[in-house]
Design goal:
hydrolase; 5-stranded antiparallel beta sheet; 9 strands; 184 residues; alpha+beta; 4-stranded antiparallel beta sheet; RNA 2',3'-cyclic phosphodiesterase; Cyclic Phosphodiesterase, Chain: A; 4 helices
């Protein structure tokens, strides 16, 4: 199973995600994420044996307790790119309210999951929602201009849980399935 840990956006925000993606409608070389599957990835675990699912969920629950994070409100807005505007691989909208709580959760997850053999993240965690991935640089200048000129507000939502998600890669794009829920 290919697993990751995420905070799912409510379905009520999928229209706003699609509207933010529409700002890039004239860009070639972008592959957009599915707004109906919108989520904030806290940690990518990769290929994981099925018998590790329960230990992973237990580690997530322990990390939530360690972080001391209760349900909180989060909001999304603005635009950015990873790794930089000069070399765009991912176009994202940022987490505004709730970013601190998400960083605390991420930071608590790493040591708990390390006990199961998952490598800690090497980069600092930056909470974001991926809008698109850039396949090639044909429209890099256009994408950079949109990022610099636009600052959409996507809305806010209540975060109540971390979900363990399974990702199946298909020719049409990834399909995500929640395989465990861990309440804050």
């Amino acid at each position: 199973m290919r697993l990751f840990l995420a905070i799912d956006l409510p379905a009520s925000l999928s229209r706003e995600v699609a509207d933010a993606q529409a700002l890039f409608a004239d860009a070639d070389g972008l592959r957009f994420t599915n707004p109906k599957q919108a989520h904030i990835t806290l940690k990518f675990l990769g290929e994981t044996p099925p018998d590790q699912l329960r230990p992973v969920a237990d580690a997530v629950e322990t990390a939530i307790d360690e972080a001391g994070v209760e349900p909180f409100d989060a909001s999304l807005g603005g635009l950015g790119a990873f790794p930089s505007l000069d070399y765009i691989r991912v176009v994202w909208t940022g987490v505004r309210d709730g970013a601190r709580e998400m960083v605390h959760l991420h930071d608590a997850l790493d040591p708990e999951l390390a006990t199961l053999g998952f490598e800690p993240d090497e980069r600092d965690f930056s909470p974001h929602l991926t809008l698109a991935r850039m396949n090639d640089a044909r429209s890099k200048t256009y994408v950079r201009e949109v990022i610099e000129d636009e600052a959409p507000e996507l809305g806010s939502f209540r975060v109540r849980e971390i979900r363990v998600k399974k990702s199946d890669l298909t020719a049409e794009g990834p399909n995500y399935e929640t395989v465990a829920r861990c309440s804050l």
